[in-house]
Amino acid sequence: MSEISLPDTETVLKTAGAYGRDLLERVLVTFLQAFIGGIAITQPLDGSMWYAAGAGGVGAVLALAKGLFARLRGVTNSASLAKGV
Hints:
This protein is mainly α. It has a domain at 30-77. It is 69% helix and 0% strand. The protein has helices at residues 9-42, 49-73. The longest helix is centred in the N-terminal third of the chain and has 34 residues, at 9-42. The chain is rod-shaped, with a radius of gyration of 18 Å. It starts with 8 loop residues before the first helix and ends in a 12-residue tail after the last helix. 18% of the residues are buried.
């Protein structure tokens, strides 16, 4: 009978912590980029700042979904879809 080899608790916590920080950074940066881009578009077109915030929120939710999908795909330390990151 083969033995199941599981990582120790410290390794799991470090991996989860690194993944969490990576995903949080990606979501926040995506929100800020989309929000700033939304402001740049809504100001000349006399649009509401809430539309810019909504655009930023949609971008952040999509970044979160992509990061969670990357985790399900098997990349343990990163929210990137690229292998080896």
